[in-house]
């Protein structure tokens, strides 16, 4: 009997201790922001910074804010949400392990829409609202005003969500810059609702005065552009502060440098001897990311076909583009670098050359610091008696600031297990993976443990490993890609992207019948995103994408354009 009482007391003590340490966080939704709230993900964010809202401070580096996340479905109006204490967090994984102390705390809800796709799957995802699929800034998402709290074990806390992010103000057309919003029939059919593509279009000098002139098209690929970037018709603002600091480049006055470069580009654009062409920046934000990677995908739909066969012909027809494959060129950096090469590879007859700077992994044997075909775990290098975390971000000296596990656990906390974070590893997974049985992207690896699924890796290889695809299909692809492939990367790229470029160069240099006849170049000790100019620092060359490759493009046009193309000013006259 005494023994029974002893164990009963021990069990009670254990329960009491657990209860004392169990926090209770209640999230109220103000009636003013309950409209169209049904499904979503609630984030609980902790910060020690009083100068910025917690939602803006989640990152891969050591100064990140703390975030915990949980999904919810079928919200009932006027009900509160009780935050699940077992929700996964980053960088601290469990709420009970968060250190006691003073924090600014904010609750945030990312709303999910329901999509009934043409493939038969019904999925719930956050829809882009014109902001480029940035959850912390997405219109209609709702959040609480940050409150300062002395956090303790067993905390009882009530937060009220009563703020809604306003709609995005769209830019206005100017003489040179036009904005296109285009309904894609292909994407609409796939997603089961109206889906749109957009573009910011820069028209050449003399466009209105020369209605019979038609122009080559330069397609600048990259992350979501709210307006055309790097073009400014007035000199830099003389009142700009000289002490604004760019942490990325370690220099002061970078805003003035950017404005001066944009103004210098305008001066070139209108000069009488400058070539005449159209530049477009494509807007293809989607429920998974700020762009689609410009290819067809089981999870995102036929974005490649929609851009190449719907959007681009529409723009060329509207703005007098020449409208033939020899007159189209692709360029971009990072995500845009991968897209430029991928689009050239998948649509070789539709484009006449690509300039891919610091591209996302183009050979999955070097998927950042992972070999997807040989490694068993994405997060660790494992030996018999120890394992080491794989790096994911470094500086030019090799100093590591984030691991692959760090970045993926951040995404797991923000977006959960269905690729909904809107971040880098999740969009690669969404683009490259087959759809799983639940309709969401099939994971390339377990998001928590890092264990790689070799069957998914095999699917990636056959469908999106650009080096592998070129190598396998060179007999038919080679003649169509000859002279069109140009790749540039810093040899100390922050994300280890140069490793995949090395492997791709090794293949390209041994090509025959034909030899690829392009360029692969590296920047010495250059970080992300070096784009091919060894004479300038990257903080300048990155601002010159629209003029950087014109000499090479001009040579390509001499070799491939028809006789009636004006090689001096790059126009084709039609009666």
What's this model, at a glance?
The radius of gyration is 26 Å and the shape is globular.
Structure overview:
It comes from Algoriphagus winogradskyi. InterPro entries: AB_hydrolase_fold (IPR029058), Mycobacterial_A85_antigen (IPR050583). The chain is of the alpha+beta class. The chain has three domains: 144 residues; 238 residues, Rossmann fold (3-Layer(aba) Sandwich); 97 residues, no CATH class. It is 26% helix and 24% strand. It is built from 14 helices and 29 strands. Strands 1, 2, 3, 4, 5, 6, 7, 8, 9 and 10 form a ten-stranded mixed sheet that branches. An eight-stranded mixed sheet has the order 11-12-17-14-20-21-26-27. Strands 13-29-28 form a three-stranded antiparallel sheet, with no helix packed on it. Strand 28 and strand 29 form a beta hairpin.
Radius of gyration: 26 Å
Low-confidence stretches: 1-18
DSSP helical segment count: 14
Q: How many β-strand runs?
A: 29
- Mean pLDDT, nearest integer? 94
Using the alpha-carbon principal axes, give the shape: globular
Provide the CATH architecture of the largest domain. 3-Layer(aba) Sandwich
Helical content stands at 25-40%
Helices and strands: which structural class?
A: alpha+beta
State the major sheet.
10 strands, mixed
The fraction of residues in strands falls at 15-25%
Q: End-to-end span in angstroms?
A: 106 Å
Total of domains: 3
CATH class annotation of the largest domain? Alpha Beta
What do we call the CATH topology of the largest domain? Rossmann fold
């Amino acid at each position: 009997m005494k023994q029974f009482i002893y164990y009963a007391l021990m069990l009670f003590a254990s329960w009491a201790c657990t209860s004392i340490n169990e926090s209770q966080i209640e999230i109220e939704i103000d009636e003013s922001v309950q409209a169209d709230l049904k499904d979503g993900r609630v984030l609980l964010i902790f910060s020690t910074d009083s100068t910025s809202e917690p939602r803006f401070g989640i990152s891969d580096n050591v100064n990140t804010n703390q975030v915990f996340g949980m999904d919810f479905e079928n919200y009932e109006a006027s009900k509160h949400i009780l935050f699940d204490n077992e929700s996964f967090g980053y960088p601290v994984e469990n709420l009970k392990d968060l250190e006691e102390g003073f924090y600014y705390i904010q609750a945030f809800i990312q709303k999910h829409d329901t999509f009934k796709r043409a493939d038969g799957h019904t999925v719930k995802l956050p829809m882009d609202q014109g902001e480029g699929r940035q959850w912390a800034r997405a219109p209609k998402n709702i959040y609480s005003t940050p409150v300062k709290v002395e956090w303790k074990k067993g905390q009882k806390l009530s937060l009220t969500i009563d703020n809604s992010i306003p709609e995005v103000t769209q830019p206005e057309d100017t003489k040179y810059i036009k904005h296109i919003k285009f309904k894609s029939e292909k994407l609409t059919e796939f997603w089961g609702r109206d889906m749109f593509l957009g573009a910011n279009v820069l028209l050449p000098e003399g466009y209105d005065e020369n209605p019979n002139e038609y122009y080559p098209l330069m397609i600048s690929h990259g992350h979501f552009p709210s307006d055309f970037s790097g073009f400014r018709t007035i000199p830099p603002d003389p009142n700009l502060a000289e002490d604004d600091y760019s942490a990325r480049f370690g220099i002061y006055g970078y805003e003035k440098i950017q404005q001066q470069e944009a103004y210098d580009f305008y001066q070139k654009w209108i000069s009488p001897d400058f070539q005449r062409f159209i530049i477009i920046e494509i807007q293809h934000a989607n429920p998974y990311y700020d762009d689609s990677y410009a290819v067809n995908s089981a999870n995102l739909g036929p974005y490649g076909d929609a851009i190449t066969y719907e959007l681009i012909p529409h723009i060329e027809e509207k703005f007098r583009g020449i409208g033939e494959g020899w007159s189209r060129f692709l360029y971009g950096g990072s995500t845009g670098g991968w897209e430029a090469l991928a689009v050239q590879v998948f649509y070789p007859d539709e484009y006449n050359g690509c300039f891919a700077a610091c591209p996302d992994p183009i050979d999955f044997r070097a998927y950042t610091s992972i070999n997807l075909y040989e490694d068993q775990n994405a997060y660790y290098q494992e030996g018999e008696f120890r394992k080491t975390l794989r790096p994911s971000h470094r500086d030019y000296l090799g100093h590591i600031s984030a691991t692959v596990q760090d970045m993926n656990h951040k995404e797991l906390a923000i977006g959960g297990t269905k690729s909904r974070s809107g971040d880098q590893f999740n969009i690669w997974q969404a683009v490259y993976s087959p759809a799983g049985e639940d309709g969401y992207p099939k994971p390339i690896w377990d998001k928590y443990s890092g264990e790689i699924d070799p069957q998914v890796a095999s699917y990636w290889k056959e469908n999106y490993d650009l080096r592998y695809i070129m190598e396998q299909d060179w007999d038919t692809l080679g003649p169509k890609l000859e002279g069109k492939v140009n790749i540039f990367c810093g040899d100390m790229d922050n994300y280890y992207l140069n490793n995949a470029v090395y492997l791709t160069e090794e293949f390209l240099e041994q090509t025959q019948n034909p030899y690829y006849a392009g360029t692969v170049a590296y920047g010495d000790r250059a970080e992300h995103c070096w784009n091919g100019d060894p004479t300038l620092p990257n903080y300048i060359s990155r601002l010159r994408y629209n003029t950087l490759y014109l000499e090479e493009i001009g040579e390509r046009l001499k070799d491939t354009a028809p006789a009636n193309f004006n090689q001096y000013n790059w126009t084709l006259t039609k009666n």
